[in-house]
Amino acid sequence: MNPDNLTHISTQLESPNARDRMLALASLRKVPAVDAVPLIKKVLDDENLPIRSMAIFALGIKPTEECYPILVRLLETDPDYGIRADAAGALGYLEDGRAFEPLVRAFYEDTQWLVRFSAAVSLGNLKNPQAYDVLIKALDSEEVVLQQAAISALGEIKATAAIDKLLNFVQSDDWLVRQRLAEALGHLPGSKTTSALQYMAKDSDAQVAEAARISLERLQEQASQTPSS
After folding, report:
1. Does residue 43 belong to any structural domain of this protein?
2. What Pfam families does the database record attribute to this sequence (predicted)?
3. Were both Cys, which of 61, 75, 96, 119 would link to 103 (CB 3.0–4.6 Å)?
4. Domain holding 209: CATH number?
5. HSE (CB half, 13 Å, CA atoms) of 158?
């Protein structure tokens, strides 16, 4: 990228005007990670929380060797729970396998549901089967959003052992739980899954029904591509 453009962005990031700093961050989308990350770091401790949040997200989609330790530090030590949640989410975008342990710790130890929610979602993004026990625990949470995150993540890690547990949510009162379930079952082939999806395809909520139909089509397509023994 043109060095003059980078200098301009760097100057904007030091502007006393929050809007200028926000626009400068947005302009880094087209900048290579190696050039963008040093500039993103300039506003990681910004007084404006939305700017900090945006900078943390940017680290997740501009991976360099610096990003992982920065995000883990923020997840584990930042006093603002929103920032910790942002860091957990960015670690999922980073898709760095080393994030598994910090995310598990955050799920078990952080007292804020938003951080635990982001950690559960990111564990799904990592697609590490070892997240199974954590996600099963999340299913039993009293926080519906944690249930939603766990259902989606169990689908992401293709946790077929969780099918019976997941099917307990087929008639959940929360349509988002049912929608997440319909989407997750599309990654978990089996006769019980198919029966559940056929039932959910008639759900009173159109979005749930559509998700179930899409998952059924996915499973049917996968089955047709599997060589018969």
Report:
1. no
2. HEAT_2
3. 119
4. 1.25.10
5. 6
Number of domains in the chain: 1
Tell me, yes or no, whether 183 lies in a domain: yes
CA distance 213 to 5: 48
pLDDT of 123 reads 96
Q: pLDDT at position 186, please?
A: 97
Query: Which pLDDT value is given to residue 225?
Result: 79
Residue 202 lies in a domain: yes
3-state secondary structure 45-83: CCCCHHHHHHHHHHHHHCCCCCHHHHHHHHHHHCCCHHH
| Largest pairwise CA distance in the chain | 68
Which residue range(s) make up the domain with 202?
A: 172-229
Q: How far is 75 from 83, CA to CA, in rounded Å?
A: 7
Q: What is the mean pLDDT of each run of 10 residues along the chain (229 residues)?
A: 77 94 92 94 95 96 95 97 98 94 97 96 95 94 94 96 97 97 97 96 97 96 73
Question: How many whole angstroms separate alpha carbon 154 and alpha carbon 83?
Answer: 25
